[in-house]
Amino acid sequence: MAGDDHNALAECRATLHWLRSIDRRYLTGKLWPNVDASAGRNACWPWIGKSFSHGYGQIQVGRKPDRRTVRSHQLSYFLANEDIEISHWVLHSCDNRPCCNPMHLRGGTHAENTADAIERGRFLNRPTVRGEQHGCSRLTENDVRDIRALAHQGLLQRDIGQRFGIPQATVSGIALGKAWSHLNGKYPPVERVRHCKVLDAEKAKTIRSLYWAGCDQSILAKRFGVSPSAISSVVRNQAWHDPDWTGPDETPKHACNRRLAQAANEFFEKMVPHVREAMASGATSNRAIAAALNGAGLRSVEGSRWHHERVRQIRIRFNLEDSACRTATIRRRTG
Question: What fold does the segment set 9-119 form as a domain?
């Protein structure tokens, strides 16, 4: 197989191995009626049947569902050489892809096939187009130099992108050396850092103190002119890491939620006697108990009127379920 066709060696092996299981008379009848051998024994015998787009002839061999498509010159070489090695590729000495003359075909290796392709100009070895020579490039080498210089100075990537009219992600790739990497030796990229250069160690310490005192991250972000994600990294001691910092065991939000849950639990404990009293007075459903509590002038934890769902939570949490209530619930559910 000459030229720039790069089928895997495994495919060639599988095809030749499969052909050995097919009757040779059948293969001969599929091949030679579509080969023009009128030019003589030493001339090229072109394939006149259906061909692949790259010029090699193709033959449908076998019946469905085992039908396969093989190349005409492969089949010709196989029929002329019964002792063909499975590891061989089939190469053209005439460099004429449609040719099926066995005298113009030989077995070879992938390395020989590639060497033939290079010798005959199948591989053009085009140089890689990079940088401002690329047709889609919007930047020049001087732009890349300036972008990396600004990144070294600590300017925000979004501001650099606005200056050059490119997205922040593009600026990041250039600054880190992932894009325009062929200029890394000439214009060194910046090192990846875990902290925002708008801040410093003293500001980071102030941010942590304010946050743990209860200040919201969004307010801190506006105050220091950074994004909320940068504030989050600082308060978690990931950006501008301070090895001596020992923050509380829980965040202010978690502490607030814990205090609210504790206050609600204490309130529910105080309401248990009132719920028991309502149940003893004949209230068998959560709605009836809620109505009784509202009638007594009692208010829920939010200061609003009692709702049957809140009563249900109390009864589940403190196991306030007597036999009368259980029977009424079963009857209601079963209809």
Answer: Homing Intron 3 (I-Ppo) Encoded Endonuclease; Chain A (3.90.75)
